[in-house]
Amino acid sequence: MSRTRRLPPLLGCVLLGGVLLALYAPGGVLRRDEPPPGPAGRSPYDLSGSIEDAQDRLRHRPDDAAIWASLGLLYLEQGRRTADGAYYGKAQGAFERSLRLPTGDGEPYIDAVIGMGALANARHDFAGAVRWAERAREAAPYRWPLYGVLTDAYLELGQYERAERALRRMLDGRPDLASFTRAARLEQLHGRTGPARRLLLRACEIAGAPAEYAFCQWQLGELSWNGGDARGALAAYTRALAADPGHVPSRAGKARAEAALGHLDQARHDYATVVTRSPSSVVEYGELLEHLGDRAAARRQYAVFTAQHKLLAAGGNADDLAMGTYEANHGDPEAAVRHLRAEWRRRRSVVVADALGWALHKAGRHAEAAEYAARAARLGGHDALFAYHRGEIERALGHTESARAHLTRALSINPHFSPAGAARARALLAATA
Q: Which regions form coiled coils (predicted)?
């Protein structure tokens, strides 16, 4: 029943959409007909190879601001692809080096400015992302990736009208994979899955690199999963992995869909593969193990998560949303409320509204919880887990008919939304039939 299982959906767009558009757009570091130079036989879209090539070029041209910016963007994309946050620190170092170097007109290299905005989004510093993107817009209003950074940041801040205006500017100037995937996310937020699917299919058609295609297929998988189509989701995740076997989000999605379809051995194998590469799915894996009765193994996964969080917090990068969600489901509800109130002060998005409402419910404050659950629904909470949370809250308030309606809706949206949550929703409905 956890949202700690993956990053908020927009953050994938932050990285792939913004990074590849910044690299290949007109005026960007690279052009599609001029892939990064490298040894013969290497794929022009091999991220690890491209990083090595940029590093090699910097050994000969250490004061080239453009190469430093391109390296930072490549690090960002590698971080998204592998779900390895260590690449974010590398990206920051590359961007900062680029910003310190002089350019021909004496201005900072604009892709480094945009990259810092994308990096801020990846680190959940959405107000900071807006500041970087606005700085880029003042200097170069026709560099379309900056509007992607703005779209993503405003969505996470809950400022949806501003997000839509930024996206419209991006679509008008550069209708491509980066803008189509963001438009699909907005359509999905409003519950319009048909238009969202058409936009993602269009993005898949124009994807030029394996990483782009994998990203689009992953998004299609997420759309299918959120709509309750576990088989369709599994097919999309599998296509993504065929294009990019190292795409961690698709591997995690594949495991989730396999578990829903009863392929438990394969699901456990894929989850084990994911968590050895990135700890981003350890709570989700732990919840499956707990549902299957292997509580000792589940506790080991939860211990990995809490250790990771302590390291992040010690470095000043605490994730209050992830930790608050974890505490609400598996730990101290009062601690969950503290974490999520802190997150709510930073951004008032649909995900945070739902998470805070759930934490308040787990802490016994059901009336206040209901206010946040209703707010999540108003913001665009077309999500089975949100509906389930609201059903549990209404039940705690004694509103039996409303509770049944929300629990029924949760299962109609996605009968596999959570191993434990879906089972409980069915049990509650059966008990009040």
A: none
Give the span between the Cα atoms of 381 and 140, in whole angstroms.
Answer: 35
pLDDT of 342 over the 60 cut: yes
Last residue of a domain, one of 124, 155, 174: 174
Total number of domains constituting the chain:
2
Assess whether pLDDT exceeds 50 at residue 61: yes
Q: Is residue 13 part of a domain?
A: yes
Rounded distance, CA 138 to CA 77, Å? 25
Determine, yes or no, domain membership for 368. Answer: yes
Average pLDDT over the chain, rounded to an integer: 87
pLDDT of residue 332: 96
| Distance of alpha carbon 241 from alpha carbon 129, whole angstroms | 30
pLDDT above 60 for 34: no
Q: What is the pLDDT of residue 247?
A: 92
CATH number of 363's domain: 1.25.40.10
Residue 118, Cβ density class (10 Å: 0-12 exposed, 13-18 middle, ≥19 buried): buried
210 domain-assigned: no
Rounded Cα gap, residues 413 and 226, in angstroms: 7
Amino acid at 42: R
Query: What b/e string do you get for 357-387 counting C-beta neighbours within 10 Å, with b at 16 or more?
Result: bbbbbbbebbeebbebbebbbebbbbbbbbb
Contact 86, 253 (CB under 8 A): no
**Higher-pLDDT residue of 364, 210:** 364
| Residue 305 covered by a domain | no
Domain extent at residue 411: 341-431
Distance CA 384, CA 294 (A): 26
